[in-house]
Target: DNA-directed RNA polymerase, alpha subunit/40 kD subunit
Amino acid sequence: MNIEALSIDTIGLSARSTNALHREEIHTVGDMLGFTEESLLQVKNLGKKSVEEIVEKIKKYKLNAVCTERGMDSGEEKVFIPDNFDEWICEDVNKSVVREWLTENEIRIEALELLSARAFNLLMFAGYDYLYQIVFLSFEELMSISRMDEASAHEIGKVLTRFIRNSKEDICTYISEKNRKNPTIFDLLLRQDLHDVILQYVKANDIEIEKMGLSNRAKNRLLSNGYTNLSDIVFMERSELFRIPAMGNGSVDDVLRNIHIYLEENEQRMLAVISGDDSALWNDRFIREKILNLYPGVGFGGLSLAEILEKLDLPKQVTVERVKHIIGLLIADKELEYVDYRCYRVYGKFEDVLKNSIVIDDRSKTFIQRRLQGETLEAIALDTGLTRERVRQVVKASIKKVKNQYRLETGHELFDEDYYRYLYENYDFDKKDGAEWLGISVSVWNYLNLNDVKKGKKDLQTALEDHRGLEMGLRLKIKNYLNRNKIFVDGMWVEKRRSELEEVVVRKFCKDDVSFSEFIEIFNHFLRDEEIPYDEKLYYTEAVLRTRKNRLSDERFLLWKQNEQIRYYDIDGQDYSELLDTLNLASYENIELSTAKFMKDHAEVLERYDIRDQYELHNLLRKIVPEGSYHGFHCCRMPDIRFGEFDRDSAILDILIDNSPISIDDLVALISDEYGYDPRVIIANYLKNFSDYYHQGIYSIDQKQMSVENREILENALIDEFYYIDEIRRIYRELVPNADIEEINPYNLKNMGFQVYCRYALKNHSSLEEFFEELLTKDDIVDITAYRNRFAYIQSFSSTLSELRRNLQIIEYEPNQIINIRKLKRSGITLDMIQEYCDAAYEFVDDGEYFSAQSLRKAGFEAEMQEFGFSDWFYANLLISDERFSFGIMFGNMILFKGNERITTKTFITNRIREHGSIDAYDLMSELADEYGCIITEKREAIYKVQGTEVYYDKILDRLYANKDIYYAELEEGGF
Model:
């Protein structure tokens, strides 16, 4: 590219400068490069500004031309280094290029090999790692570096100068290559092979000669000679324009200047079209106007990017990124404003339009301004000697004139102040609060009044749901206003009400047992730390202790137990299906138990639910099991529960009869084992009515003997190996008329071959564990539903079942359906294969990851075991035998976790939301169902479980956020 051949008409000089140079026979860039500032000052009609303009152009083209020279014969380019490189490098424009070269090549200060260790360390410790950071620092700037001394500063300057001088060939090579890569549109105009594509662009973005802004003479000369559009003349040079009849110097200059302006304004897009980007053919001004033309009728509603693209209906060559760029320019020009995912039209402020109005006099302006500031008609009338009515008329008429003027000039019907019109005319709120919280200044309030807008009556709380009438930013202000009587704690707004604050304090400070008296101190201290002024309606005082204690004990965010101890427990954040299934409350009838029995019999499950003692379990059951359910469930005094009617004395007497003679310690142990009662309570309270049977440390009751005949009848009927004592008594009554029930005692049952326990009898087995193991393993496939119901009272059943499952002797392949390992072995499945499956799953999932058998499968997990085609429930039960995994039943499915932690429904859902950052509520439901196999029938089930966490739910967007910071960040980022 021969830069020196460029005409000075095409390089953007002013007409004054161009004409002066032409008069001096300076017609090309090459002619111009030989001049200096001093020689240019000698040229006639060149003022100081013109000289400065030309000097800047000379510097620019020297930078471009000095480093590249094209051989006329060979066509090859060679790098040319200026004769006086040290002088060349002092030019600011050349310094910029050198700094750019250093930056792009990432040349570090280590390249200064001659630099002393001290100087190097001073730079390094001051944070200077690259040469571009220090290359042209002055001596004074170097001295400002921490601990820098004069000798080191001079040394750095000298070494830098030497390095740049030694790199001059590389620098000029860089400039040469850059020029080849980045030609200007004026360079490309000289290439005939590009004229077609340039002309294509100009025709797509053509300008009529009449609209080019030419002088009348130049315009008429072109039109009269058949030139109607810019595309007709874009390639014409000065000499060609002079050949047009009656076209003088001034007209030629005018035409060339306007062509140059067009090319400069469109250069980037023209270069893009030349590079093959067809989308650049479309004029930005055209797209810009189309965007602005979307807004009449939209008002303050705004448009999202998707809505803008849909309404524009642009050709596919116009990319979304380009539209975004144009929208960005409109925002920068304050034509549009971007808030909360949407673009809004910017309207003029009424006060500004009023100040600059030329259609009303100053007196009328003053009247309106005073009214906007809240002054009354009477006050203005008194000051001006007019009547109140006359002032009102002037104000009303003048406002109308200003609005008409604004409409004619802009095409807008709305002012910026009208943004609040919908809120003002629909909702009820205080003027002072509106100014303080919602941004409705006094002048805006009065503007609406002056325009006869009537005040609304709706409750402002409902405005939060009004997403059609109110944009999100304003709804956010309203939410903050409604939250003004709240405090922000752990990512949540909390009402300044004692009941709300109690939950916060329990959640934050009562993770372990805290007495009620300690809680009082913690609560009041928390309020003081939050700088909440003393208020007897908030703080704990002597007057409210009793009522607050009663209320707190019923709350569902804590467990209340013996000695007024409380502990935070999220009752509503868990799925209790596994717990209730394990306790099998439906199988209990006419019995009383201490929850201590459940703690002993089902320790593993209760540990998973983080229930630490019988008192916590008692309080939990009271809060999750309805009174009267499960055959008359009732919570007695802690820790006892009762089902239906129960005669404790009769129950103890039965134990005494069945085990007489028996020592007091053994009797107490049997009663405690059967019903879970505290041995101390049994001795102190429950044995008082049996003193007649007590003698010298032994309780004794004579056991009646059964006749041989009756024993044979009963023995022949008792064909099963296990019976409850009550069942045997019922059978005896049915078989023997007028049967004496006292004959059903250990003596007679033992004679029939039974081992007798407190409430049941067993034969043909040495222990209950042996009996249950045979029951659960004798068949290859067993439905244990009936067994769970029948043996719910007996801890040995649950423990034996758990042990067999843990050891993989039996596997639950569907709920309550078990298969024996021997059958699996016959099918080719071994314990080694199961272990390999568990190992593979452990390697596949990440530490701390929640998963299910279904999610594993969907994630692409493959293992040999899966080829057998069992259900996900089967594979999940294989995994829970591995102690490296934690698990829980959640939403009807088994959810596992890699690691040994207590997991709950709340921790699971919260984890999923945090993984996404934010997620739509229905998308979360779909993920839990599709990915994990959970069964969620209603959205509120999932949302309810994350209450009391940092998770934030926006009802309007129906979206869950990991915390409020993410919520606000998304609002700020928006949808573009």
